[in-house]
UniProtKB/TrEMBL annotation:
Upper classification of the organism: Bacteria, Thermotogati, Deinococcota, Deinococci, Deinococcales
Coiled coil spans: none
Keyword Cell membrane assigned: no
Pfam families recorded: ParA (PF10609)
UniProt xrefs under InterPro entries: DNA_Partitioning_ATPase, P-loop_NTPase, YlxH/NBP35
Molecular function GO labels: ATP binding
Membrane spanning residue stretches: none
Keywords: ATP-binding, Cell projection, Cilium, Flagellum, Nucleotide-binding
Protein's name in the database: MinD-like ATPase involved in chromosome partitioning or flagellar assembly
Length: 256
């Protein structure tokens, strides 16, 4: 049975898209067919991590939302672009990077209900084991609808005060919508912080499991979004922690 996993953060810049790309790749490394949908239509970017050029995008999520194509026509198989042998598949539905398309979203909006219809059709038509939704930061109707149909919600935050306040909103929404599984990933932790203290503080603050505390990584920074970290650094300690997140949200079929 397929699982829908939403990756969300209250603010931008937390590493939400990196988390989405890494989890999708780790699941695909286990032989799963994984879909990724970039619903951050106002500021799309996850396609960069998968080395998908705008000129290669035959159709995008925008085209589906405006009735120009079916959702499965916007799927791009980015597995070969990961640069490592993978037994599964990573199938990306990107959002358009064109200025005119982004302006249209800001000017006209779209029917958020079409997103959920598209998610269900995509799971069926692409025969997905997992669908990862890279959400728009903050709280909007499309985000609420995505979280509501999810089997798991990963809330990504940084250990600073603004994120602490914003994350509380997301966690409460997840509880209100009865998401079956919800975990927090603390990202970009400064190395001078004590990991155990950070984990304890976050879990005590929200009464929610912290699936991983991910410290600042020079290798991640140096990669500069030119690839997916777990594919480039399969033996890195950060990759091991991300494997734990994948197992936590997908289930015991994912080996650590």
């Amino acid at each position: 049975m397929s699982k829908i996993i939403s990756i969300h953060s209250f603010r931008g810049g937390t590493g939400k898209s990196n988390t989405s790309a890494n989890l999708a790749t780790l699941l695909a490394m286990q032989g799963l067919r994984v879909g990724v949908v970039d619903t951050d239509i106002q500021s799309p970017g996850i396609h960069v991590l998968f080395n998908l050029e705008p000129t290669e995008m035959r159709h995008t999520l925008n085209d589906y939302l405006w009735g120009k194509c079916d959702i499965e026509e916007a799927v791009h198989d980015v597995t070969p672009k990961l640069g490592v042998p993978i037994s599964g598949k990573v199938l990306l539905v990107p959002s358009s990077i064109r200025t005119s398309e982004i302006s249209r979203v800001l000017r006209e909006g779209y029917d958020p209900g079409l997103l959920n219809d598209g998610f269900q059709r995509l799971v069926e038509k692409a025969r997905l084991d997992a669908l990862i939704i890279d959400t728009h930061p903050g709280v909007g109707e499309e985000t609420l609808l995505s979280i509501a149909i999810s089997d798991a919600l990963v809330v990504v935050m940084r250990p600073d005060q603004q994120d602490f306040q914003g994350t509380s909103v997301t966690v409460e929404i997840g509880r209100h919508l009865d998401v079956p599984r919800m975990v927090i990933v603390v990202n970009k932790m400064p190395n001078i912080f004590d990991e155990r203290d950070v984990k304890k503080r976050v879990e005590n603050s929200y009464g929610c499991e912290v699936a991983a505390v991910l410290p600042h990584s020079d290798e991640m920074m140096a990669l500069a979004s030119q690839g997916v970290f777990v594919a480039r650094y399969p033996n890195h300690s950060l990759t091991e922690r991300m494997r734990g997140v994948a197992k936590s949200v997908y289930g015991p079929t994912v080996r650590v």
